[in-house]
Structure formats: structure tokens, C-alpha cells
Amino acid sequence: MGRAWPPRTQIAWGLLGAAAAAWFAIWMLFFPSYVADYFAWDVRPRYAMAFIGAGYVFRTAFFLNAAREGNWLRLRWIVWGNLAFTGTLLLATYWHVDEFHWNPFETPLAHLWIVLYIFEPVTMLYLIPRGIFAVEAPATGGPLQPPFKGWLVFMTGLFLMLGLLLVVNPEFAAARWP
User: What is the rounded CA–CA span in Å between residue 12 and residue 67?
Assistant: First the structure.
């Protein structure tokens, strides 16, 4: 039995998304001095930029998986992380929309940013086959041990708390960053 390849639209969406996410990750993490002048907005503090860059590392992996995986049953677990990330950045975008570099002759990224964060999750939702979330997931291993489950809940809460603080009130977060 051969490998099931995804449709061409899914491959194109995955590869284009991976290229854009990798570009933003590298830019945010390794070339932060260029963000102020050329990015959609001047991301401050530096820790917020690192948080966004780390999120793009996740998104690069997500998009590469989506480009090569033909079975959405194996991808559906990562959909919620992608929606949470795009939703958080879309909220941050509209929260700080007055700080954007809207002059397209200086940098077109403000307009591109809005388009990407509106259309990328909508496109993903239309690529997912209907009813995929209603299908029971295949067994992939044993149950999570209670201490590990507690650790995951704790870390998720901690990262959500710090991430939202960086987005909602970066000045407060910068003054109290560990």
C-alpha cells in the first residue's frame, strides 16, 4: 500500500506557510535590529520578539507536516496550536494596529501581516476534511501518567500566562521578566 500524498493545494499551502514562518522565525530570533525599521511594527520588548520568533519555529514544523502528510487524522492535534497562535497574534495585531508601519513604500509587511493572519487560518479550516474531528483518533500509545499530565497542565498555564502578558502589556512584562 502506497503513501497517501496530500492534495496539491495543501502541499502548496504547507510549503508557502513553512517558508514564511521560517523567515519570520530567523528574522525575529537572529536579526532583531532590523525588525524596528522593516517589520510590520516595532516589536518591543525584545522578549516579545523572542516569543513570537519561537512561535514561528512551531509554525514552520506545523506547515512542513501539513505539506507532507496526507492524513488529517495525524495532523488534527496541531490544528488547535496553530489556531491559538494565529488568534493570539491577530488579537495583538489589532491591539497595536496604531503602531504599524502602514506606508507600503517603507515596508509592505503591515498589509501582508494582516492578510496572512486573516486568510491562513481560514484556508487551513477549509483544507481540513469535513468531520475529521468527529472521527475517533487511532491509538498511539499508553495513557498519560498523572504526574506528567499535571506537568503539562502547569507548563501550558505558565506559558499562556507569560505569552498573553507579553502581548497585552509588554511594558509590565519587560519590567518583571525573570
Answer: 7
Out of 6-20, 122-136, 150-164, least confident range: 122-136
| CA 152 to centroid of chain Cα atoms | 19
Distances (CA, A) of 118 to 28, 80, 89, 94, 131: 21, 16, 10, 11, 23
User: What gap in Å lies between CA 81 and CA 162, rounded to an integer?
Assistant: 16
Q: What gap in Å lies between CA 95 and CA 82, rounded to an integer?
A: 20
> Do 97 and 40 form a contact (C-beta atoms < 8 A)?
no
Confidence of residue 148 (pLDDT cuts 50, 70, 90): very high
Backbone φ/ψ region at 163: left (φ over 0), alpha (ψ -120 to 50), beta: alpha
pLDDT in tens, 149-173: 999 999 999 988 888 887 788 788 7
- What the block records as the C-alpha cell of 11 is 502541499
| Residue 16 cell numbers, joined | 508557502
User: 39 or 103, which is more confident?
Assistant: 103
CB atoms near residue 16 (< 10 Å): 14
